[in-house]
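Task: fold both queries, return tokens.
Query 1:
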Amino acid sequence: LFFFFFFKQKTAYEILSGLVGSEMCIRDRVSTQSTWGLLMQDKVLNKDTIGKNVKNAEYAIRGYIVQRADEITEQMAKGQKMPFKKLLYCNIGNPLSLGQPTYTFDREVVACCMNPILLDSPSISVDAKDRAKTLLKSVDYPHGLGAYTSSPGLKVVRESIKRYIEERDGYPCDINNLFLANGASDAVQTIFTVLLTDPKDGILIPIPQYPLYSALISLLNGTPVPYYLNESKGWALDMEDLSANYKKAQDLGIKVKAIVVINPGNPTGQVMSKKNLEDIAKFCYEHKIIILADEVYQKNIYGSTPFVSMKKVIHDLGAPWNTCELVSFHSTSKGFLGECGLRGGYMELDNIDPYAQGQILKLRTITLCPNTCLLYTSPSPRDLSTSRMPSSA
């Protein structure tokens, strides 16, 4: 998603470039940059010493345009007049910042887990207290959450995710294959770190894409292999295009190790048909490619096509396709929760080599553990708090 402004006479480019009212801005900026460069020459970390992979990585949704927007916001807060009244950040999916209401239940559970004295508060709903007591009993932390947990994450939370996946797909889920993370992006970075070992290692990524993927590939010195979604067919994946781009990469000596499948699409918003997902699974089985299923928008469905997880697709296909190597990602940042700032997510590994899974666990131990300010599960229909959910949900 890109940045949009409501403005009158001046163009958005002029506003974003800081050119409104003065052509001197460009010369001033160049002069400032030159002076800054001289001052930085004696620093250990500078333009010349920072790793080239870091400099090559681009993450547009947090790049220059957002930085310029922050400057404009500060200027407006100080009373500077602009040819518009309000600046709206649409560079990233951030539901709460745009007014999406929160679940009181979830917030109450988290509050009680972080500060158990609230369990005696009459302002906390009864079912939220019950849920918090269950969680606190499971982790055996008398003073609430805050201590390190196991590196894959709290077992009680992984057991809850296991039940969710099994209810959704109708297939077993092993909690030992579940890893909690600080958002799905954190888990994606772990998997990319394991996958990319050489500049000739390639990962197929959709175009349009969420720029996390191209940024991480650059950062880890791999090669992005783009495949193009067909806008005229509702942003469906075109298998002929996928095959052609795979072959093109092979001809260049690139070893394609994985494919990123974003379903529902980001930023395109489409829900992929089961047939499309089956074609991808068969292609990946044939070419020994790991499937990386970004499914964080699975609760944000627009249109009549139902969401089907990649895990369900490969297991519905049966042998031999149900042996496809698969890593699925989900997050609390989207859907009805929209809790982007609390950084909650998970990945599930399916058909991954035990040694490789052990190395993934090792990587997760380096950062000790994921965020323990957890979001467990929303209230069930039988819970009292269900009647207090936001009407928009």
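Query 1 returned. Query 2:
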Amino acid sequence: AVVSTQSTGRKESLSRGSPDTGFNAADSILLVSDERSSVLGHGPVDTSTKPIQTDPAIAPADEKTLVLTDPTELTTAGQPTPRSVIASRVDNQIVAGEVIEGPNDEPEVSTDDRYLTPPSQQWISGQMSRVRSILNYSYEPPPNWQKCAISNHFSTHTYFYRKIGVVLTAIPKSGCTNWIEAMLRAEGLLKRTFSAEKLFKVHSMYSHTRIPKLKPDEYGGIEKAISIAVIRNPWTRMVSGYRDKLGPDSAETNGHEKRGIGISIVARMRGLSMAKVHKDNLFPTFEEYLRWLVINGGNVNDHFTPQYRILCLQQAEYDYLVPLEYSAIVFPGIMDQIDSTIQLRGSYDKISDPRKSSSTTKAREWFRGIDSSIIEGLYKIFQPDFMMANYSNFTDSEFPLPLF
């Protein structure tokens, strides 16, 4: 949202924790900076079920109402000072000192095609500079993939395909399986055809292409390779991770669930023994899964941890940082560069407009029922992921597309 300060006419970014994060502070998302705030970094995350308490003197009667008591109290970086602030997006503007009534109904899915065109890589590069800044990361060319293989625990998700000259960081739950399969075919390593349910097997095949497994003399030519990474809106990625790996229907999604993790989540959240959870065949609810993410600070399995941790951000600058939402559009151009006609498999539900996919629909529905303290905790943990492509919030009509 944009803060228009009447006294000076300045326009500053009101963002969740850093200047110009691009996070869309949309309808009835509470930005709270008291002692429990996770968004602005003023304290630990409160994982209880109680609702966030706001200052009754400024709390609106309607959660769609916007209140900004003193918009001049912004730091020069554009961050709110440590005080309670309730922000809601109303035509992308916050008017100083006024109370604005917002719409009460849920936003409809946008029919505007503007955001169905991918952002430029130059724009994404600018976003990544901001990400490195808030993480205190630095990078000096040339790329050093060998150093990433040594220093980054998650570098097992980065592959080098020597023949086609491609480095791919395949982030779990961000279209990684389809991209790995395509690169293996372009490299000439994969000939057989897998059904969608068995496609996960490509992860265990030809693992010698992972950079931590390369021998020192096998890095030759990697400095000239085209580097690619695929990212995804964190909200839909969380939903996809739950549905695919942890939920009661996960075995039907692709047959490769993380059952042990699900059992441990239920045992911890409900105070049960793991033996009883296993015996009673209990699965974590979506909210329990989200609480588990917050409690662990995102330091969890690769399929659920923030995406920025998997990228080699301190050792390389990616030539293509592709939002998953635009994979089908961007992929052919990349294949043209390596003289390949290989095609990329589509999503499981075959929806061409990401705003109408099953993960998007479920994310809109499921996250609206989650306690705001959990939402805040998740945003703090995944904030760099949101910034990477200025991803929209689940209450936005363009969700899950980047807003650029």
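Both queries returned. Flag for query 2: Residues 1-104 have pLDDT under 50 and may be disordered.
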